[in-house]
C-alpha cells in the first residue's frame, strides 16, 4: 500500500490566508469549519488544480454517475496516511451535489423551472490538500503518492509565502428581493396543509428564494458572510465564469469514517434574543416545544430508515436526541443517528440511499419532494444539496447546503425555508424562512 507524504506549514486557525494563495486557480475549493469563532468543526480542507472535473450529465442516472465517481477514485489509487497522522483526506473527490441531483436517483416530476442552469453535481479529483487540524493546532500539506516532486515543491513554496492582502470587492446592484410575496407563500402553505390533512404526508420543507444582480469577487462576499455567521460546515467552491458556491451551513449530512456512519439532522429553530434574558427564553422555548420535538423525531425516524438501507442490520442507533446548538443568528434542535456500513457497501452507496437529506425534504421523503416540485416555482439548485469530500480510503464528510448562496451569471441567489406540519401557522413559517437568512442578506447589502 502506497503512503501519502505530509509537509507541515505554520498553523493558521483561519483558512482565508492560505486560500487567498489559490483563490484564482482552477477548481479552487475550501471546506471550512468556521474557526476561530465557530467551535464544533475540527478540520479545514482546501485544494485547487484538480486532475479531472466531473459533472453529472442532464439525463445520466444517479447510480451511473456514482459509478463514474468510484472509477475516478480507483484511477487515482488507494493510499494511506503515515502512521500516527490523523487527517480526514488522502486525495480524492471534493465538490457538490445539488438538491436536484435527487432527480437522478428518484423519478420526480419536473414542474419547477430550472432557471439557474446549475449542473446537478460537480466534483474535482484532487491529489493534494492543505488540511488544518484545529484540535492539534496544525496546518499540513498532504500529497497523494502520485504527485510529482516538482509539484510538491511548487505547492510548499506557494503556501510558504506571505499571504496576499485581499484587494477585490463585491457588491449588489439591487437589493435582495424574494421571488414569492407573502400572499403566494400563504397559498402554497395552505396547499401543503391540504395534503397533510388528506394523509399524503406529515411534513413538507417549503422554501423561498431571494435574488439580486451583483458584481465583483464572490470570495470577498464569502469572507464577509463568514465573519457575520461562522458555522462548522461552511464552504466555498469556485465555478466557471466567476461563479461560486458560498455555504454557511451549520448542518452535517452524513459522515463516514472507518465504516462508521453519522448524520446530524437539524429540525427546530428560534431566533437569537436581543439580550441575554430574551436569548435564554428563546432557547428554553425551543427545548420545550412539543411541535419542534415532534418534527425532529419525524426526521430522525426517516433517517434511521435511510441509513438502514446501507448499514448493517441492527447497527443503526440514536445516541443524541434534541440537543440545543446555538449560532450567531439562531438556536437549533439537533439529533444524531449513527450506524455501521454493511459489508460490501461504501460511502457512495450511502449517498444513493439517503440523498437528499430528510431534514430538508419532509416525510415521507418522495411524496414531500413531489409537493416541493409542485409548489416551489423554481428548482432549488445548490440549496439543500451537499458539499462533500470523499477520499481514496473511503472517508467522507458532507454538509446539507442550507444558509447557502449561489453566485452565477451576474446574480446571487439565497434560499430560506422550514418544515411545515399540521399545526404550523403560515405567518410564523414565513417569518422563520426570512429569519434564517436575514444575517446573510443584511451582510451582502452592507458590502
UniProtKB/TrEMBL annotation:
InterPro entries: ADC_synth_comp_1 (IPR005802), ADC_synthase (IPR005801), Anth_synth_I-like (IPR019999), Anth_synth_I_N (IPR006805), Chorismate_C (IPR015890). Residues 182-436 form the Chorismate-utilising enzyme C-terminal domain. Its EC number is 2.6.1.85. It comes from the Bacteria. The keyword Transferase applies. Residues 14-137 form the Anthranilate synthase component I N-terminal domain. Keywords: Aminotransferase, Transferase. Transmembrane segments: none annotated. The keyword GTP-binding does not apply. It is an enzyme of class 2 (transferase). GO terms for biological process: folic acid-containing compound biosynthetic process; L-tryptophan biosynthetic process. It holds the Pfam family Chorismate_bind. One of its GO terms (molecular function) is 4-amino-4-deoxychorismate synthase activity. NCBIfam families: pabB. This is aminodeoxychorismate synthase.
Amino acid at each position: 500500500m502506497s503512503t501519502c507524504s505530509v509537509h507541515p506549514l505554520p498553523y493558521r486557525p483561519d483558512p482565508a490566508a492560505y486560500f487567498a494563495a489559490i483563490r484564482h486557480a482552477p477548481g479552487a475549493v475550501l471546506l471550512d469549519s468556521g474557526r476561530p469563532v465557530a467551535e464544533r468543526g475540527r478540520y479545514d480542507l482546501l485544494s485547487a488544480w484538480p486532475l479531472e472535473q466531473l459533472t453529472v450529465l442532464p439525463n445520466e442516472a444517479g447510480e451511473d454517475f456514482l459509478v463514474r465517481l468510484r472509477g475516478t477514485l480507483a484511477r487515482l489509487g488507494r493510499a494511506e496516511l503515515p502512521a500516527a497522522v490523523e487527517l480526514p483526506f488522502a486525495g480524492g473527490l471534493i465538490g457538490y451535489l445539488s438538491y436536484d441531483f435527487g432527480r437522478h436517483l428518484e423519478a420526480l416530476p419536473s414542474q419547477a423551472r430550472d432557471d439557474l442552469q446549475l449542473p446537478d453535481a460537480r466534483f474535482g479529483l484532487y491529489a493534494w490538500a492543505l488540511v488544518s487540524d484545529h484540535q492539534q493546532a496544525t496546518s499540513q500539506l498532504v500529497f497523494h503518492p502520485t504527485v510529482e516532486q516538482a509539484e510538491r515543491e511548487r505547492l510548499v513554496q506557494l503556501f510558504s509565502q506571505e499571504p496576499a492582502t485581499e484587494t477585490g470587492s463585491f457588491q449588489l446592484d439591487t437589493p435582495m428581493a424574494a421571488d414569492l410575496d407573502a400572499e403566494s407563500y400563504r397559498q402554497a402553505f395552505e396547499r401543503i396543509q391540504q395534503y397533510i390533512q388528506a394523509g399524503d404526508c406529515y411534513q413538507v420543507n417549503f422554501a423561498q428564494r431571494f435574488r439580486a444582480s451583483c458584481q465583483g469577487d464572490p470570495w470577498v462576499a464569502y469572507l464577509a458572510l463568514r465573519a457575520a455567521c461562522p458555522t462548522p460546515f461552511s464552504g466555498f467552491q469556485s465555478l466557471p465564469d466567476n461563479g461560486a458556491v458560498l455555504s454557511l451551513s451549520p448542518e452535517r449530512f452524513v459522515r463516514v469514517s472507518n465504516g462508521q456512519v453519522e448524520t446530524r439532522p437539524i429540525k427546530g429553530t428560534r431566533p437569537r434574543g436581543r439580550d441575554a434574558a430574551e436569548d435564554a427564553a428563546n432557547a428554553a422555548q425551543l427545548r420545550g416545544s412539543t411541535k419542534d420535538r415532534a418534527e425532529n423525531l419525524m426526521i430522525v425516524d426517516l433517517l434511521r430508515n435511510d441509513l438502514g438501507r446501507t448499514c448493517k442490520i441492527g447497527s443503526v442507533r440514536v445516541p443524541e436526541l434534541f440537543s440545543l446548538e446555538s449560532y450567531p443568528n439562531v438556536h437549533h434542535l439537533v439529533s444524531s443517528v449513527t450506524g455501521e456500513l454493511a459489508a460490501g457497501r461504501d460511502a457512495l452507496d450511502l449517498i444513493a440511499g439517503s440523498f437528499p437529506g430528510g431534514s430538508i425534504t419532509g416525510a415521507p421523503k418522495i411524496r414531500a419532494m413531489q409537493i416541493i416540485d409542485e409548489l416551489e416555482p423554481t428548482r432549488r439548485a445548490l440549496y439543500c444539496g451537499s458539499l462533500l469530500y470523499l477520499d481514496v480510503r473511503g472517508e467522507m464528510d458532507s454538509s446539507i447546503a442550507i444558509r447557502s448562496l449561489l453566485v452565477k451569471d451576474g446574480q446571487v441567489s439565497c434560499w430560506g425555508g422550514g418544515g411545515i406540519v399540521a399545526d404550523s401557522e403560515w405567518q410564523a413559517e414565513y417569518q422563520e424562512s426570512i429569519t434564517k437568512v436575514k444575517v446573510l442578506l443584511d451582510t451582502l447589502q452592507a458590502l
